[in-house]
Amino acid sequence: MTHTDLRGPATGNAAGGSNGNAAPDQAIRPSGGSGRGEAREDFQQVGYYYNLSGHGVFERLLEAPGVGAYTGVFATVTEVYPPTDRAFMGGAVMTVHNVVPLEGGRVQIRVDAGWPQDIPVRVSLQYFA
Length: 129
Description:
By secondary structure, this protein is mostly beta strands.
């Protein structure tokens, strides 16, 4: 067996390249954003939730006031018990696959609700605007 130096530079992908790959000990530079390194005091934390219905992998376009294409948006999903409108740990495994902030105060999401029929779910969005 040949010895391989795993700490050596990556072959074919230079550190700091524009493809997002780097050697394990090299940080990848930001692709965009503010280069000033300053915190902004005028941001406001925003949170909305959306009662939806779906099964399997599904996509929805959500209104999210203040969101632009470069807004960092975080999403969660949970099953909802309709009589009480409360989240609960049901039998369906649920994951958020994609969260895409868009211009004009919109967010596109892709969710997987692991159940064969439509079930009520709640997607929550958190972001700073």
